[in-house]
C-alpha cells in the first residue's frame, strides 16, 4: 500500500493536536498503514545492543518526523523474515499485547435498544454538523427506540442475540495460539465499540497487565470512518488521557484486505462453495458488502468503497489464476435511514439479476469476518427469499472466514510484521500543544480575572464584603 492511502480526507476528522494516522510504506504482503522501518530509520526507537538483542526505548516520537519518508529512504526493510527476526529478539524484554477491535452486538433482546443507542450516539455513525452536535444523545435515543422493534425481530430470528462476542473471543484465542506457534507470546484482547467487552475495558486490562507493546488489529478488512476509524478515535482518546498508555508503543493495522493470506482464504471459500452447485461455471459470484452513506466517501474521504472494489478485484484475480472464470457483481447491503448509501443496493440488484435470467447465485459477505445478523438474517433469510422470488433457482452463501486456519495464520503474520513499527500513540507535538493551550488559557483567564476584580463595581463589592 502506498502512503497515499493516508488521504487528506481523513484529516478533518482528527481533533487538532491529536494522534495522526501513522504513515505507511510499500512492502510486499503488507497491511495498509502499518509503519515499517529499519533500525536506522527508526530514529533510535529500536536500539541494537552489543550482544545482538534489541532494547526498546520509549521515546515520544513525533509523527511529523515523517516515518514514511524515512522508511522509503532505506531500501528493502521490513520483509516478513526481517520483522519476525526483530520480533523474536524482543520477546525476552517485551510484554506484547494484541487488541482486536470489533463492533460488538447485543447478547439478548433486552440489549438491543441500548446497543442501538450506543451505535447511533457515535459521531462517526451519525455525523451531525458542529452546531447540532449537542443533539447527538437525543437523536440516538429517538432512533434507537424507533428501530429497536425491527432489530429485535432480526436478532430473535438468529437465536435471540448476536454471535459476535463468542466468535471474536474464539478468534482472539486462535490468533494467540497462531502467534505462540511462531514463538511469539502475546496477550490477545477484544475491544468492542458498542457492546461488551467495551474497548475501554480492554484498555484497562492492557494497562493492568503492563503491556509494553501493542498491536491494534481491527477485524474489518477494509477501512471505514464508521468502523475502524471510530474505534481508533476511541482508542486515541483513551491513550491520550493516560500517561502510562501514552508511552506504550502501538502499531495500528488500519486495513488488511490486500493481504495474500486474506485474499487466498476468501478465494478458497468461494471455490469450495461453487463446487456445491450442479453447474459451478454458471454461478454468478455475488459480493455483498455492508454499505455506508455516500457522503462518507464523497465529503469525508472515506476510502471504504475504493478499498472494497480493490478487494473484489484481488479476489477475482486470484480466482482467475486458479481457472475460475465466473461472472461477478458487487452490491451494498444494510442501509439505514433516508440518506443515499453506496450503490448498487443488494436488494435491487438481486431483483434485477433474477429478472435478467440469472439462475444460480453465490452470495459472498465481504466486509466482515464473522457471522452476524447481516449474514445470518439479512442474507440467509431476506435476500435469499427475494432472490428466489425474483427467478433465481439455486442459491448458496460463502461462510464468514471465522476461524479458517489460513486466515488466522495470516492475521498472526500481520501482527508480527507490524511489531517493529510500534510507536507511542501520543506524540510530543500533541503534548506540547496541550501544554501550549493550557498556558494560553491560563494567561487570558488571569487577565480576565484581573480585569473583573479591578473593575470599580467588583472592587467595591469585594471591599464591602471584606470589611
Ligand atoms: C464493515 C462493516 C460495517 C460498516 C461499514 C457499518 C456501517 C454502519 N452500520 C450502521 C448501522 C447499523 N449496523 C448494525 C449492525 C452491524 N453493522 C456491522 C458492520 C458494519 N457497519 C455489523 C457486523 C453489524 C452486526 C452486529 C451484530 O450484532 O451481529 C446495526 C444493528 C442491526 C440492525 O438494526 O440492522 C445498525 C443499526 C450505520 C448507520 C453505518 C454507517 C454509517
Ligand atoms: Fe452496521
TrEMBL record:
Annotated protein name in UniProt: Ferrochelatase
Role this protein plays: Catalyzes the ferrous insertion into protoporphyrin IX.
SUPFAM superfamilies associated with the record: Chelatase (SSF53800)
Cellular component aspect of the GO annotation: chloroplast membrane; chloroplast thylakoid membrane; mitochondrion
Biological processes per GO annotation: heme biosynthetic process; response to oxidative stress
Family per similarity comment: Belongs to the ferrochelatase family.
Gene Ontology molecular function: ferrochelatase activity
Record organism: Eutrema salsugineum
Annotated localization: Plastid, Chloroplast membrane; Plastid, Chloroplast thylakoid membrane
Pathway membership: Porphyrin-containing compound metabolism; protoheme biosynthesis; protoheme from protoporphyrin-IX: step 1/1
Keywords: Chloroplast, Heme biosynthesis, Iron, Lyase, Membrane, Plastid, Porphyrin biosynthesis, Transmembrane, Transmembrane helix
InterPro entries: Ferrochelatase (IPR001015), Ferrochelatase_AS (IPR019772), Ferrochelatase_C (IPR033644), Ferrochelatase_N (IPR033659)
Keyword Transmembrane helix: yes
Transmembrane segments: 435-454
Reactions the enzyme catalyzes: heme b + 2 H(+) = protoporphyrin IX + Fe(2+)
PROSITE patterns in the cross-refs: FERROCHELATASE (PS00534)
Membrane topology according to the record: Peripheral membrane protein
Main location: plastid
Known EC number: 4.98.1.1
Amino acid at each position: 500500500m502506498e502512503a497515499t492511502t493516508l488521504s487528506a480526507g481523513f484529516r478533518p476528522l482528527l481533533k487538532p493536536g491529536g494522534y495522526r494516522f501513522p504513515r505507511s510504506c510499500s512492502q510486499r504482503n503488507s497491511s495498509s498503514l502499518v509503519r515499517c522501518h529499519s533500525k536506522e530509520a527508526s530514529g533510535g526507537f529500536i536500539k541494537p545492543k552489543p550482544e545482538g538483542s534489541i532494547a526498546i526505548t520509549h521515546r515520544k516520537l513525533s509523527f511529523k518526523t515523517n516515518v514514511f519518508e524515512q522508511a522509503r529512504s532505506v531500501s528493502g526493510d521490513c520483509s516478513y523474515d526481517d520483522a519476525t527476526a526483530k520480533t523474536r529478539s524482543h520477546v525476552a524484554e517485551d510484554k506484547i499485547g494484541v487488541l482486536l477491535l470489533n463492533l460488538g452486538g447485543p447478547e439478548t433482546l433486552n440489549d438491543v435498544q441500548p446497543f442501538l443507542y450506543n451505535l447511533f450516539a457515535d459521531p462517526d455513525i451519525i455525523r451531525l454538523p458542529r452546531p447540532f452536535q449537542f443533539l447527538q444523545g437525543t437523536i440516538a435515543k429517538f432512533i434507537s427506540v424507533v428501530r429497536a422493534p425491527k432489530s429485535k425481530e432480526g436478532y430473535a430470528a438468529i437465536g435471540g442475540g448476536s454471535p459476535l462476542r463468542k466468535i471474536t473471543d474464539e478468534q482472539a484465542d486462535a490468533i494467540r495460539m497462531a502467534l505462540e506457534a511462531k514463538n511469539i507470546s502475546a496477550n490477545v484482547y477484544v475491544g468492542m465499540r458498542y457492546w461488551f467487552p467495551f474497548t475501554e475495558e480492554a484498555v484497562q486490562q492492557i494497562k493492568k497487565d503492563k503491556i509494553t507493546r501493542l498491536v491494534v488489529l481491527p477485524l474489518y478488512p477494509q477501512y471505514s470512518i464508521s468502523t475502524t476509524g471510530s474505534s481508533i478515535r476511541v482508542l486515541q482518546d483513551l491513550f491520550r488521557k493516560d500517561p502510562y498508555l501514552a508511552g506504550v508503543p502501538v502499531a495500528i493495522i488500519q486495513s488488511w484486505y490486500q493481504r495474500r493470506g486474506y485474499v487466498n482464504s476468501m478465494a478458497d471459500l468461494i471455490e469450495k462453495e461453487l463446487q456445491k452447485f450442479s453447474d459451478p461455471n454458471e454461478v454468478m459470484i455475488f459480493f455483498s458488502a455492508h454499505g455506508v452513506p455516500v457522503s462518507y466517501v464523497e465529503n469525508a474521504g472515506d476510502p471504504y468503497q475504493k478499498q472494497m472494489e480493490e478487494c473484489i478485484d484481488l479476489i477475482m484475480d486470484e480466482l482467475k489464476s486458479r481457472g475460475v472464470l465466473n461472472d461477478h457483481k458487487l452490491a451494498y447491503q444494510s442501509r439505514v435511514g433516508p440518506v443515499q448509501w453506496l450503490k448498487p443496493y443488494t436488494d435491487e440488484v438481486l431483483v434485477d439479476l433474477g429478472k435478467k435470467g440469472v439462475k444460480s447465485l453465490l452470495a459472498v459477505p465481504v466486509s466482515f469476518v464473522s457471522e452476524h445478523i447481516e449474514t445470518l438474517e439479512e442474507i440467509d433469510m431476506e435476500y435469499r427469499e427475494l432472490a428466489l422470488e425474483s427467478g433465481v433457482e439455486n442459491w448458496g452463501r460463502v461462510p464468514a472466514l471465522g476461524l479458517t486456519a489460513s486466515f488466522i495464520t495470516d492475521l498472526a503474520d500481520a501482527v508480527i510484521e507490524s511489531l517493529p513499527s510500534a510507536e507511542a500513540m501520543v506524540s510530543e507535538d500533541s503534548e506540547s500543544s496541550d501544554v501550549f493551550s493550557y498556558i494560553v488559557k491560563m494567561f487570558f483567564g488571569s487577565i480576565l480575572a484581573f480585569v473583573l476584580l479591578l473593575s470599580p463595581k467588583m472592587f467595591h463589592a469585594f471591599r464591602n464584603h471584606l470589611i
